[in-house]
Amino acid sequence: MALGYIFIIGLVTLFSFFLLGVMQEGQDIKSVEAVLEEEVEMDSITIPKNSYLYDKNGRMISEVTNQENRRYVTYNDIPQRVKEAFLSTEDQQFFDHNGVDMTAVTRALVVNAKADTIEEGASTITQQVVRNLYLSHEQSYNRKLSEVLYSYQLEKDHSKEEILEYYINSIYFQNGIYGFETASQSYFNKSSKELSLAEIAFLAAIPANPEHYDPLTNKENTKLRQEWVLTKMQETGAISEDEKKQAIDEEIHITFSNKTDLYPHYTFYIENELKQLVASQEGYQKRIENAEEDDEKEKIERQLNNRLNEIWKSGIHIETSLHPDIQEHVVAAANQELANIKAEGAAVVIDHATHRIVAMSGGQQYQKYDFHRAFQAFRQPGSAIKPLLVYGPHLEETEASIATQVSSDLFCHNGYCPSNARGGFYGNVTLETAFAQSYNTSALRLFDQTGLHTSFSYLEKFDFKQIQSEDHHYAAALGGFSNGVTPFELTDSYTVFSNQGEYTPSRGIQAVKDEEGNVLYEWEDEPKQLWQKETNQKLRQMMRSVITRGTAQAANIEGEEWRGKTGTTNSYHDLWFIGYGDRYTAGVWIGKDKPASLEHVRSTSPHLSLWKRIVSEIPD
């Protein structure tokens, strides 16, 4: 009896243990819907979209794709005939089922059982959307089961219209083309709203097997499939027998065109400027500047790049300041001039009244994403830095006149004894003459009088990215920096002379908007007053003398009052000229990517020739 009680107590204990376990498991049991909602974010579907860049007139100049070339269109903008073509061929019961067509599934199981392999998929449009967005295209029953479960959940979270919209925008049309609208623009060079019934059915034939029905290489196959699509549309009542016959008889003319990218010199810069804009407005730039370790900076940089990818995929619209006529003119001029001297170079044109970048050249015969010399080439500016670092600060601090005398004789500081360009010394000359003739010894004397620290305090107000504390030495007065400046940076800094001594950064981006036209990002630059109007006017007078009787006489244009400053580095590795008129500031740099002497072309002044050609023929 005692043994029996012990046995009963043991059983009760064991039962209690299992009961508690079962109760605990019961608490952890979740429905399929709950598991799917936890594992897959299906309530907000994001399909990568193309982004677009526009010129100053609102004309689209570039499509930016992120892995998938897709022009996304909403349900209401999809032509009815396009919807009918896919409903007739892919899922005739689409508006009646809950994501899975059981009749089609049963039929597919029978066919596959007989063939002892997967011959038929029986996928609804919902299942195809799930496969495109969440799953792989693996042919297995495991993937098929997952597809069914996901489809059930997708139908709960989204309307039929939304699912059909996702489908028509996500299907693949070969040659890197995603979505029906992209296919229409790529293969027929027109909107889907302009397509005929025959063209709609022709495109609708491709996704079933994009490689087999590739319209560029297998047009006959596509045509046969098109006739089948039209037959299905006629069987479902979407079109009449006569419409079907007319569509079959219509000849298909393909006019293939790749995505738009009209001005690569400019659009690549805009993509770079967007990164700066996002970094500035979302705090990444300050975080990078405040980071103490390189690893931390690299981590923030990766986060910024990931954020940019998200923004590009969202389908943004960027309004730019590009002036298409000026851009074409600048690129043509640069290509011709640079080819003549077998050198590289860059040119930038800025509307200094509005602080907008209207044109730029990244180099001879530039291809997008190559090294862009206008904003990626950091070069020694030579004497082109003098008005910003030497003369501007000196005139502002001393209130000297342009007629004030300064010696052009030898000047040394701690063993640094540069000479003038032609090796001569000319005694006392006016500031205007010293500037116009670009005497190095005079510039160093003025730099010394103003003070190194004071002079650099003016330069720091500009956007020179790679001028650092290590550059605070006397050679900088003549353009000697560790890394240098870019042609864009130097041209941008010269806009101060056309704005009464006030500097505002020049931008290419006017606004970044979403698909609904809401502004996401735009620059909010505040102007900085560098020096008084009187100082600025003196600088303008001296820069006029550079062209009329100084180092840039070859750039003089009769009847026009352009002003500017030349710059030449040691051994003629770099040739610069930055000049401005009533409306535009234009900068030109000529050199070689691997610094080498250009002395063999120095006598022809190619930098002045290119600059003069740009500004004298600049379109209105």
Largest sheet: spatial strand order? 2-1-5-11-12
Summarize the biggest pleated sheet. Answer: 5 strands, mixed
The CATH topology of the domain at 67-249 is given as Penicillin binding protein transpeptidase fold
What is the CA–CA distance across the termini?
113 Å
Query: Which regions contain 5 or more consecutive residues with pLDDT less than 50?
Result: none
User: Per CATH, which architecture of the domain at 67-249?
Assistant: Orthogonal Bundle
Please estimate the helix content.
40-55%
Count of DSSP-assigned helices: 23
Q: CATH superfamily of the domain at 67-249, called what?
A: Biosynthetic peptidoglycan transglycosylase-like
How large is the radius of gyration?
34 Å
Describe this structure in words.
The protein has 620 residues and is an alpha+beta fold. Among the domains are: 67-249, Biosynthetic peptidoglycan transglycosylase-like (Penicillin binding protein transpeptidase fold, Orthogonal Bundle), CATH 1.10.3810.10; 380-485, DD-peptidase/beta-lactamase superfamily (Beta-lactamase), CATH 3.40.710.10. It is built from 23 helices and 16 strands.
